[in-house]
Each structure stands twice: as C-alpha cells, then as structure tokens.
Write a structure and sequence with these properties.
With 271 residues, the chain is an alpha/beta fold. It has a single domain (3-268), classed as Vaccinia Virus protein VP39 (Rossmann fold), CATH 3.40.50. Helix content is 42%, strand content 23%. It has helices at residues 3-6, 14-36, 53-61, 74-83, 121-130, 150-162, 164-173, 183-190, 210-214, 222-228, 233-248; strands at residues 43-47, 66-71, 89-93, 106-112, 132-143, 194-207, 256-268. The radius of gyration is 19 Å and the shape is globular.
Length: 271
Amino acid sequence: MNVSTSSTFVAADGDGYELQMGRWSRRLSDPFLDFSGAAPGERILDVGCGTGCLADSLIKRCQFAHLRGIDFSSVYIEHAARRVHDSRVSFEVGDACALTFPDRSFDRVLSLLVLHFVPNAVRAIAEMRRVARPGAVVAASVWDARGGFVANRIFFDTAAALDPKAGERRARNYTRPMTRPGELANAWRAAGFLDVSEAVLGIRMDFASFDDYWSPYEGKDGPGAEYMATLSLSERTKLRDAVRLAYIDGDVDGPRSYGALAWAVKGVTPG
C-alpha cells in the first residue's frame, strides 16, 4: 500500500500510539458508539482500527456477530491482535481507499479518528458505502483540531511562535480533510447516504503531569512527534521548555484536564 496516498499519519509503534492517541480514542469510543449505534448479530467493519480501541468498546456493549478491523499500519494491527482476544474479532492490514471486501458485506461501517488523515477522504467514504449493505449505518468521527483540541493546540501554537516551519505544519494540521464545520455531513450527503445526521462529541484529556503530557512528542507516532524529529537537540529543548510554561500556566506542575471535541456523522446506505 502507498502510505503517501492513503494516510498522512506517521505510525511506528503500538505502545507509542496508545500513549499519543489510543488512550483518547478509547475515551471517545463510547460517545461515538452512543451516536452511531450497534446491534446484536451485526457484521461490523472498523475502518482505521488502530490498536483496537473501538473493538474493546463494542465487545463490552454489543453481541455483534463479527467485527473486522483494518488499518494501514502493520504495527498497529499486530498490537491490536496481541491485545484483543475475542473469536468474533479479526484485524488485518488494509487501505481505507481500496477495501478488499465484497459489495454489501457489512451491517455497520464505522471509522473513528481516521478520515482526516486520508488525503482522498472522498474515496474512502465511497468505499465505506460500497461495502455496507442497503439500510446499514455508516458513521465516522474526526477531531475538531482547529477549534476543539486544546492539548494539541498548546503544542503547535507554541511551536509556531518559535519556528515558521512549525507554523506551516500547524496550518496543514488544522486544514486536514473533513475537519471544517459541516464538512463530514456534506460529504455524507454527496456520497448518497440517507438520513444524515451530525453531532459534536466531547471528552476530557486528563494528564497526570507535564511529563505525561509531553512524553508522546518524544516518541515516533503522530504529527507532533513527526515535527519533533526535524529539530536539533537544542531546538527540542527550547520547545519543551516553552510548552512546559504553557502547561504550567502560572501554577505548579501536576494534573491538567483539557477539553477535546470531535465532529461526528452518520447516514444510512440506500436500498
């Protein structure tokens, strides 16, 4: 699979993803499933399953028949397969823009925090519709990165104040596909889904300390770590010190809780 055309997310390590985003994906899974629904006996496809957080939530709440999870990252698939032990669940490497499943294969197709990293998101949405049976629910959610993702903005706004190249990365990060208000719903209607509805989902991102907040940026997964890898040691130290001041925000180091909002959409495949 050509990652450059199918995903812009830098994926390197399952544990690194859990620290960088997996813990928040898990927290968002429940409100997303409250919105998208799930029913006993369904065949469900999870497009961009990552390390399996949506599978965990579905196992706890629904007696589905089978869940297939696909992700572009083999290391995330391996991590999910090691961690999730349920005979109804399987994971495999796959491309959201070229799903290998036959037409009308699934009763529900879900995608959590993925489409904004797919350059040809319209193609991925078309594929999600193709593999959904008539009357199936197809739902997705992406971060409101520009207006509702406080923890991420602390990092990129601080970096942009220090480095013009970080400003360019920030601009790309906050203009990803499907992240503008109404963009997901418009894409669902354009794809021909019926009964399209949208929602804003909210969680809190809770950090125990600045080190807990900062450690994902020292890893290899996600946009922040990708930017950090371009910096010299002195530049990394300067940025860390500046972000620490923003995190501390005139107080002592310790727990912080930041709001995070995500756009969500669902629709029904026509008969």
